[in-house]
């Protein structure tokens, strides 16, 4: 059982330690990077190899067929402080079918030093290094943006350190609306992807020994220009929101708008019809009246706009068409999202590569729709309350090997009736203290149909699992012995009710009960703080991904590899 070192620091503590860490004459990004290299090098030279937990990035999980998120216990052989990378030797790995090599070169910020070390003489140096690595990780994850690497501003640190720290902690403390926080996260995630694509392009050009303008394939130049222009657009949007006065003004406007909407006594009915002939509009209205009665309605040509202007618990009825969604908007707070005829007629899609829909209310109903999740990492995240899908299809991109269809967070409830889910690494994830209900559903073309954890309540009836390449249902537990077999082995578990489950063409077993151990985070007191213990970490082994809170610190270390 490994324990990793973590820290919980307030805004004032973070600001104070950075102001102390950076000399006043170091302001530009290039000089900041050199300063990090020098300081890390001084500390790491005092350590003769050390153990760490490696949080495996999504792209490496995909490359080596590992479940995401995954963590690996490693021995760090050496660190390159100029490149901020480390050479590691794999000691223990979670994913059974992973083809991860015994040694690997990883990013330094993805490593978390453990409390237990082979060389006890390393302990004090490890704690000092863990604190500096925490500062480094937070700085590169939360303060430095992708466009900053090319910024030669001699006063960069003075202009951005405090404002970006303030932005991060305002979001963390709930002082920024969820919609704004969601938009910021989406923009920054997109910016990092754009920067990565630019770096890949420049690496390719360097190998071919030519410049962008010399490349004659007719695609490289326009692609690079697009990436640079889009990165510049995101930079302006994010830096606009960096200003605390602008943030305060926007939040006040949003609050006033919300207060006006919250005075409504009845939900509004929105009809979404992008475009069509007069006859098509008339037929649509007649169908709406026939199915839902003669009610007062509002028209909108865009689902994006309707969700932005609508209110929690409103009803959104979509015509037979394809509708784009950029953020959850009003539906996050509850309501109805309904296709007029059926899932084969009406599709919702998103270009957001993070999460398509987040639900955070007492009750949300999604009906008669196909949700195309081919571009997003997560289809639906049920953060709390109840989400019901009725007569729907949720379709992923199975080539994207780390996708999850629906993730149900603790206390959340998911009900699926006559619904199909296909094309995901994991179709449904049921977290601790969540509830999942299947009735008349089909789960197919997935690695795992349902991933469950202790105290997840399951009611599954008349449901068909097929073409699940790992298993139909996997239950990770600390309370039951391991077992594999057909679905009937699940009947011994508490809070599990199954009836008429069918498994077909499942590569291994229909059901797996898998033991897990817990990796505990060691709370290390800050040298400048009177508080000797912390309940949470502000830069824990997690990211913005919704399942990290569930899995990263409670997971199984399997396939022990003997170190040489």
Structure commentary:
Its main location: cytoplasm. Residues 13-247 form the SHC SH2 domain. It comes from Agrilus planipennis (Emerald ash borer). It is found in: Cytoplasm, Cytoskeleton, Spindle. The structure is a single chain. This protein has eleven helices and 28 strands. It is of the alpha/beta class and 564 residues long. A seven-stranded parallel β-barrel has the order 15-17-19-21-22-20-18. It has a five-stranded antiparallel sheet with strand order 5-4-3-2-6. A hairpin with a 4-residue loop joins strand 3 (70-80) and strand 4. The longest helix has 30 residues, at 178-207. It is globular and about 75 Å long.
Report low-confidence residues grouped into runs of 5 or more.
519-564
How far the N terminus sits from the C terminus, by CA atoms, comes to 21 Å
Number of domains: 3
The total count of strands amounts to 28
Global morphology: globular
Strand order of the largest sheet: 15-17-19-21-22-20-18
**Rg (CA only):** 25 Å
What structural class results from the helix and strand content? alpha/beta
Q: How large a portion of the residues is in β-strands, by DSSP E?
A: 25-35%
How would you sum up the major sheet? 7 strands, parallel, barrel
Mean pLDDT: 83
Count of discrete alpha- or pi-helical segments spanning 4 or more residues: 11
Could you estimate the helical fraction of the residues in percent?
Answer: 25-40%
Coiled coil: 181-208
Domain SHC SH2: 13-247
Region (Disordered): 530-552
Keywords: Coiled coil, Cytoplasm, Cytoskeleton
Short recap of the structure:
This protein has helices at residues 11-21, 29-44, 58-63, 123-143, 156-172, 178-207, 220-242, 244-262, 278-292, 303-309, 548-551, and strands at 3-6, 50-56, 70-80, 85-93, 103-107, 111-113, 269-272, 297-300, 315-318, 322-324, 335-339, 347-349, 355-367, 370-372, 378-390, 393-395, 404-408, 413-417, 420-430, 435-439, 442-453, 457-477, 483-485, 496-504, 509-515, 517-518, 520-523, 554-555.
């Amino acid at each position: 059982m490994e324990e990793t070192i973590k820290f919980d620091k307030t805004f004032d503590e973070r600001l104070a330690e950075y102001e102390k860490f950076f000399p006043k004459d170091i302001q530009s990004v290039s000089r900041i990077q050199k300063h990090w290299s020098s300081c890390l090098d001084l500390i790491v030279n005092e350590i003769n190899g050390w153990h760490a937990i490696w949080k495996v990035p999504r792209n490496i999980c995909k490359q080596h067929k590992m479940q995401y998120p995954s963590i690996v216990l490693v021995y760090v052989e050496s660190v390159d402080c100029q490149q901020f990378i480390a050479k590691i030797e794999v000691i223990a790995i979670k994913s059974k079918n992973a083809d991860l090599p015994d040694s690997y070169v990883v990013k330094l910020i993805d490593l978390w030093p453990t409390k237990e070390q082979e060389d006890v003489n390393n302990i004090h140096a490890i704690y000092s290094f863990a604190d500096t690595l925490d500062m480094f990780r937070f700085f590169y994850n939360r303060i430095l943006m992708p466009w900053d690497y090319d910024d030669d501003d001699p006063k960069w640190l003075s202009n951005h350190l405090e404002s970006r720290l303030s932005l991060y902690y305002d979001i963390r403390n709930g002082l920024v609306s969820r919609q704004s926080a969601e938009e910021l996260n989406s923009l920054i995630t997109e910016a990092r992807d754009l920067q990565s694509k630019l770096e890949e392009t420049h690496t390719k050009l360097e190998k071919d020994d030519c410049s962008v303008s010399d490349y004659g394939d007719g695609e490289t130049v326009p692609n690079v220009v697009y990436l640079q222009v889009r990165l510049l657009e995101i930079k302006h949007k994010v830096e606009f929101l960096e200003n605390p006065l602008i943030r305060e003004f926007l939040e006040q406007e949003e609050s006033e708008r919300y207060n006006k909407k919250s005075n409504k006594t009845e939900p509004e009915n929105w009809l979404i019809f992008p475009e069509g002939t007069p006859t098509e509009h008339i037929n649509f209205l007649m169908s709406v009246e026939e199915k839902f009665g003669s009610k007062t309605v509002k028209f909108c040509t865009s689902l994006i706009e309707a969700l932005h202007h609508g209110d929690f618990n409103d009803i959104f009825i979509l015509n037979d068409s394809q509708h784009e969604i950029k953020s959850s908007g009003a539906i996050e707070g509850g309501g109805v999202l309904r296709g007029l005829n059926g899932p084969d007629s009406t599709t919702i899609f998103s270009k957001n590569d993070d999460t398509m829909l987040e639900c955070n209310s007492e009750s949300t109903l999604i009906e008669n729709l196909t949700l195309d999740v081919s571009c997003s990492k997560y289809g639906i995240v049920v953060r709390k309350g109840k989400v019901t899908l009725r007569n729907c299809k949720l379709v992923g991109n199975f080539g994207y090997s780390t996708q999850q269809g629906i993730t149900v967070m603790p206390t959340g409830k998911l009900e699926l009736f006559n619904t199909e889910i296909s094309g995901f690494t994991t179709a449904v994830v049921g977290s601790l203290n969540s509830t999942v209900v299947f009735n008349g559903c089909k789960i197919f073309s997935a690695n795992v149909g349902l991933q469950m954890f202790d105290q997840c309540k399951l009611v599954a009836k008349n449901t068909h699992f097929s073409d699940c390449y790992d298993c139909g249902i996997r239950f990770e537990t600390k309370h039951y012995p391991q077992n594999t077999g057909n679905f009937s082995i699940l009947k011994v578990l508490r809070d599990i009710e199954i009836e008429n489950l069918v498994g077909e063409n499942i590569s291994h077993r229909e059901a797996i009960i898998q033991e897990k151990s817990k990796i505990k985070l060691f709370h290390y007191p800050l040298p400048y703080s009177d508080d000797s213990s912390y309940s949470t970490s502000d830069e824990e082994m997690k990211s913005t991904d919704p399942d990290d809170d569930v899995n990263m610190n409670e997971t199984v270390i399997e396939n022990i590899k003997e170190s040489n």
